[in-house]
Design a protein that fits this description.
alpha/beta
């Protein structure tokens, strides 16, 4: 089974670029399932019902999020109502939405888990303990993918090794910078520190560079407007053995 995971989609420009290139990529690479992080898919940050629906209608099967999941109030009900839209599972009890979904593709079922790191981010429940709890879910499929939305590379690597052999793949999101460390860990779990970003090339994490420079130099509040122009779509393709749930190969991609 070939599973495509796409790095943080930034704004409407990133959504449009994904829609333009995803269908052909799915055909060429024979993709069976698409996961995309959409926590920045709305212009001005966060995710809205409109941006989520745009990603789903573009061919994304599961949308994951992170620390900006609830930036837009109009999304709260959407998280409760939409089965394949996830927020980090280690948010407090009572938070809208859920952090685990199971996709039934007919011949095979796939679980997707969304977790968030706690180093340099919110003080959420321990992602390691949360993963342990979710992996005890009754009738969990053999194939399990984890989007770990985290800042610290060490925390991402540690969770990857902690879950090695218990999940099919763990990939990081959040930093918007694709790392070149894709590999299969000793017990069969694929790992990549960060998938990267889908959005403007000439930008600082999707934002107009001059705005980030101004903020860095003046320390004054600056509205971070998104950049425009040519885009790229970063991600990775995981080829997973349907019988064992172990990953056979991982291919990092970046489309311009």
């Amino acid at each position: 089974m070939n599973i495509l995971a796409i790095g943080d989609v930034v704004g409407s420009v990133g959504c449009k670029f994904l829609r333009a290139h995803l269908p052909n990529l799915k055909k060429i690479k024979q993709i069976d399932l698409v996961i995309a992080n959409g926590e920045n898919s709305a212009d001005g940050n966060g995710i809205t019902p409109a941006s989520a629906e745009y990603l789903f209608s573009s061919g994304v099967d599961v949308i994951t999020t992170g620390n900006h999941a609830f930036r837009r109030r109009e999304s709260y009900d959407m998280f409760d109502e939409t089965e394949y839209l996830l927020r980090p599972a280690n948010f407090p009890s009572g938070t809208p939405g859920h952090g685990l979904c199971i996709v039934d593709k007919g011949r095979i079922r796939v679980a997707v888990i969304n977790l968030m790191g706690v180093v340099y981010l919110e003080n959420l429940d321990c992602p390691f303990a949360t993963a342990d709890r979710l992996l005890k879910t009754e009738d969990l499929p053999r194939i399990v993918l984890v989007d770990f939305h985290a800042e610290a590379t060490g925390e991402k690597g540690a969770l990857g090794y902690y879950l090695d052999g218990r999940v099919s793949a763990l990939f990081g999101t959040h930093t918007h910078v694709q790392t070149a460390d894709e590999r299969i860990l000793p017990a069969g779990t694929a790992f990549l520190t960060d998938l990267g970003m889908t959005g403007p090339i000439e930008s600082v994490l999707g934002v107009q560079p001059e705005l980030v420079i101004r903020k860095s130099m003046t320390k004054m509040p600056v509205r971070f407007d998104l950049a425009s122009g040519d885009c790229h779509m970063d991600g990775a393709i995981f080829s997973v053995d349907e019988k064992t749930g172990h990953t056979l190969s991982v291919e990092r991609i970046s489309i311009c």
